[in-house]
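Annex B. Sample input.
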Amino acid sequence: MLALIRWFVAAASLLGEPTLLAVPDALLQRTTMPEPSGLVWSPALSRYIVISDDTGKKESGTNHIAWLFTVSREGAFDAEPLPISGLDKLNDAEAICPGPSQTFFLTTSHSANKKGQDKVKRRRLYQLALSGRALKIVGELDLADAITASGLLPSPSVDIEALSFHRDELYIGLKSPQNAAGAAYILKVRDVLSALKKGTLAPSQVQVFAQVPLQVEQGGAQVIQGISDMSFLPDGSLALLANSPKKMPHDGGGALWLRKPDGSLVMLRRFVGLKPEGVTLSHDGKSLLIVFDNDRKQPLWIHIPLQAVLGPKSPR
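Annex B, continued. Sample output.
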């Protein structure tokens, strides 16, 4: 009974509202307002590392500079960006997740830009390691080449917005394409570490892990969503964030979904009018942390106790 009461208390947090992240003027003098698209906890920095769709400023010639940002536990951006050594541009960073041996995986979208151009710098998966207060590249490759060559998807173009590393394999969540029924794809990449060392991924290393029907009601119709981020949880379930894909009917606000270990799927919350873009476990592992891209306005985040996400435990 006590466990059930605790769950009801925790579950009430699913109805809470996101709060603002503090962004200092000193940082905004060097970059546009951060548009968070992913985050991960760094024990070494005692900070969350946050990636943003855009960095730098066009007028100063630093647009798409290879910077990430750091955020305190309390939700304040640091004034100093976190650079990636040896990389001049980081174009359309979309997902970051913890990897092995205190490294991180970071991917760009691998999609064409607004002008329809398919640029090489938008097609990179990086493995990064901390070196002081900077990141260094320890491996990189193009995911889109292998995914397209695998023939697993109904379209040769992909929009990647989610990564999670689980049991030594890398999982990739796609914003698009969807399958014929409108379900979103989650791909699994086998032996990604050796591929990163070689700098190339074989199509045979890519397989479909799941096809998840992320559909919500909007304006009296069912609207398709794609995956905007994801994170494996301690019990093997998968927290999924979802938003409507580009050039498709708008969903009126993103959602938090849970894919349970048995493959069943439940929507935990709609975020009306908001775009949830990044999800990770909190520094203490007790909460799910979600960041929102707020369209160049001050960004938002929300903490949801893990107990509320996973549900009440069955009595023994």
